[in-house]
């Protein structure tokens, strides 16, 4: 059973119901609600990791009472961090169905004084079971401690093994509860700014973890970022040390250890696409980010082109996911930003390559007709490739073909969504792609008629 998102009377959205597929594309004018929808899906999916972390914390802090209420409060705080205060929407309701009978709902309290995150009975029962497991092991270890049985290294190792088994089981059962075991990654719009700011952490207010090189620096003078921006910077920071060596060397190392010929071809294809878009090689050395152009020429990331700043971390993170063969749920806002149309097409090739590796799931928000046209080419290549694979392969690599059954595209307008995927043709409707062009051409024709 597929996962579903339902939104009513929230922000620009009045009534929406979406069934999730492996690839979801949202188009629409500015302020239509594309980001509202993609952030909502990410919020509900990310509760899985929040719960895992919270259960670990409960165990270490020996807090086993009234924990579900505390977790619900944390979930509410996270929702507000992502959207700000939402009390101006007294009739809002966001509901996510996880495809296994569980659902979570966000709505105002009955008196509209605060926002609530409600978990159903299915969740509550599993939550209690996991807390009971933690409590049981904690009680067992306390009894051992009271008998003075912690004297030998063998016994200490046994305790650590039991704790490791508990944490492994918590992770496994929470993944099953949320019906998803993918890594979660949100790449927000405005990445060029974040690429620069990631080197200026002393100027950034990271919320609870305030970062400042000068303790006397007033908090209100720092750059304030929202939750998703903070999360993106943290992901960048964790990935930077990997690139102490050149990307080419990193890939050579991976290719030398892989025994799967198809995996090697995928990695090589990914490298070629990244090189074509970035037109250089990223390197992180001695705390400095650079783009190397070869022949000893390079530039600091701060002085790279706006396009390079915008895409560098999309490219690098996707490349790492492909290299490590990690399953991911990925949201990319405006992948076309600052890119020439040819590079936009190449970006979609890279995203398609990632989507076709294992069980990945990808959401895109876009304004670009080139993005939609690029997807159509890959959808058509798949359909035609079923009958004429060798001929199609000469034009489009088979690793980029997209099965239409795995994709849906929506236009967000007038408070709801409408699918623009022609189910019979298996293509995104060309009328939606050409709508802006028609307006521009019509204006030109009207002006031309005046000249006549």
From TrEMBL:
InterPro entries: AAA_GajA/Old/RecF-like, Bact_Antivir_Def_Nuclease, P-loop_NTPase. It holds the Pfam family AAA_15. SUPFAM superfamilies: P-loop containing nucleoside triphosphate hydrolases (SSF52540). It comes from the Bacteria. Residues 4-371 form the Endonuclease GajA/Old nuclease/RecF-like AAA domain. This is Endonuclease GajA/Old nuclease/RecF-like AAA domain-containing protein. The lineage of its organism: Bacteria, Bacillati, Cyanobacteriota, Cyanophyceae, Nostocales.
């Amino acid at each position: 059973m597929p996962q579903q998102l339902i939104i009513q009377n929230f922000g620009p959205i009045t009534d929406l119901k979406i069934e999730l597929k492996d690839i979801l594309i949202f188009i629409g004018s500015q302020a239509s609600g594309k980001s509202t929808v993609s952030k909502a899906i990410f919020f509900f999916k990310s509760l899985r990791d929040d719960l895992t972390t919270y259960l670990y914390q409960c165990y270490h802090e020996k807090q086993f009472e009234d924990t579900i209420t505390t977790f619900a409060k944390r979930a509410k705080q996270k929702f507000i961090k992502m959207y700000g205060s939402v009390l101006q929407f007294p009739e809002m309701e966001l509901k996510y169905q996880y495809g296994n009978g569980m659902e979570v709902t966000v709505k105002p309290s009955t008196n509209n004084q605060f926002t609530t995150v409600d978990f159903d009975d299915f969740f509550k029962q599993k939550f209690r079971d996991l807390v009971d497991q933690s409590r049981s092991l904690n009680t067992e270890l306390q009894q051992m401690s009271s008998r003075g049985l912690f004297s030998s290294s063998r016994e200490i190792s046994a305790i650590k093994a039991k704790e490791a088994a508990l944490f492994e089981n918590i992770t496994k059962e929470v993944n099953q509860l949320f019906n998803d075991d993918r890594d979660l990654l949100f790449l927000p719009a405005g990445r060029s700014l974040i690429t620069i700011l990631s080197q200026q952490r002393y100027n950034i207010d990271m919320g609870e973890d305030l970062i400042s090189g000068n303790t006397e620096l007033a908090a209100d003078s720092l750059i304030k970022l929202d939750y998703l921006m903070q999360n993106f910077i943290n992901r960048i920071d964790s990935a930077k040390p990997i690139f102490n060596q050149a990307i080419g060397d990193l890939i050579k190392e991976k290719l030398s250890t892989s025994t799967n010929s198809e995996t090697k071809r995928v990695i090589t294809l990914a490298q070629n696409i990244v090189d074509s878009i970035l037109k250089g090689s990223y390197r992180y050395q001695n705390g400095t980010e650079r783009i190397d152009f070869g022949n000893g020429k390079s530039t600091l990331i701060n002085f790279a082109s706006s396009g390079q700043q915008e895409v560098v971390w999309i490219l690098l993170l996707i490349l790492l996911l492909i290299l490590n063969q990690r399953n991911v749920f990925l949201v990319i806002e405006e992948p076309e930003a600052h890119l020439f149309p040819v590079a936009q097409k190449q970006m979609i090739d890279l995203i398609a390559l990632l989507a076709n590796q294992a069980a990945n799931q990808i959401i895109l928000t876009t304004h670009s007709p080139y993005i939609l046209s690029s997807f159509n080419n890959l959808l058509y290549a798949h359909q035609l490739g079923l009958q004429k694979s060798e001929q199609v392969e000469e034009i489009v690599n088979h690793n980029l073909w997209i099965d239409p059954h795995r994709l849906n595209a929506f236009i967000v307008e007038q408070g709801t969504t409408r699918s623009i995927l022609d189910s019979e043709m298996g293509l995104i409707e060309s009328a939606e792609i050409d709508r802006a062009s028609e307006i521009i051409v019509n204006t030109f024709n009207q002006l031309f008629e005046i000249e006549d």
